[in-house]
Amino acid sequence: MEGVEVKEKDVCVKMLAAPINPSDLNRIEGVYPVRPPLPAVGGYEGVGEVLSVGSAVKHLSPGDWVIPSPPSSGMWQTYTVKEESVWHKISKDSPVEYAATITVNPLTSLRMLQDFVTLNSGDCIVQNGATSIVGQCIIQLARLRGIHSINIIRDRAGSDEAKEMLKRLGADEVFTESQLEVKNIKDLLTNLPEPALGFNCVGGNSASLVLKFLRHGGTMVTYGGMSKKPITVSTSSFIFKDLSLRGFWLQKLMNPDKVNESRNMIDHLLCLAREGKLKYEMELVSFDDFHTALDKALGKLGSQPKQVLKF
């Protein structure tokens, strides 16, 4: 692509790294509710270094590290030009792969733990899709607050290794879906309280398992539907358990009036990453090898860590 003129309020950023998220692929497929005007460049989050600034730019200088906050399209390119208001300056001590991936999945985890139910130390949450980055972050962020976690994963090769990985992150219990094919699922809760809050990113039977764990008056928050199967809820769950079903979409929290709040949360999450208190599995891939990274992100090569393109 030809270079773009840097106007007085613009910042030219040399990209350092950007992940391939499921929502990026959904945008390309045309099935995501928010679509950039065409023609468009993919990628919705990432980290870069300021190369040059327009004459009216006040708070950024060449050499600064920045991320788009709120996330902004067009991160899968070596250089990108956007107005200063798009960019949030971060500490250059931040690990590049965490800086590139902090604004979507970890922020989703933090907001979901805070926005729906008031949780106290000693409380419990339950989630499916626990090996996802959101799932891994929920385990760690909950543990930092003294909140227990029950985690559900798919039956697949390597599930024992996945259980151990989640336990190292701080998971209290990890079950495969087949382990939960019992008459009374709550008999499996030995020393843990019934969860007040559940998270669902799978749908289908896996969502039903989350609902079975919830206590009376509990809430299940859905933020994804990886199985592409609907959520089925029994009448008794509504009448006798008084369960609530909610949805979470990070995009709704990206309004201009919430920018500072989100950026403060991002700074907090990056601080945890620098301190080693927030970890998740990623694979840094050279931008030249994006074809392989794309195949991995699409699931064509089996279960793979988050793919992060390094420019």
Could you list some keywords that capture this structure?
alpha/beta; Quinone Oxidoreductase, Chain A, domain 1; Rossmann fold; seven-stranded mixed beta sheet; 9 helices; elongated
CATH overall fold name of the largest domain: Quinone Oxidoreductase, Chain A, domain 1
Average pLDDT reading: 95
Q: Note the gap between the termini.
A: 16 Å
CATH architecture of the largest domain: Alpha-Beta Complex
Can you offer a commentary on this structure?
Belongs to the zinc-containing alcohol dehydrogenase family. Quinone oxidoreductase subfamily. The chain has 9 helices and 13 strands. It has 311 residues and is of the alpha/beta class. It folds into 2 domains: 10-104 and 256-310, Quinone Oxidoreductase, Chain A, domain 1 (Alpha-Beta Complex), CATH 3.90.180.10; 117-247, 3-Layer(aba) Sandwich (Rossmann fold), CATH 3.40.50. Helix 9 (290-297) links the parallel strand 12 (282-286) and strand 13 (306-310). Helix 3 packs across helix 4. The chain is elongated, with a radius of gyration of 20 Å. The protein starts with 9 loop residues before the first strand and ends with a strand.
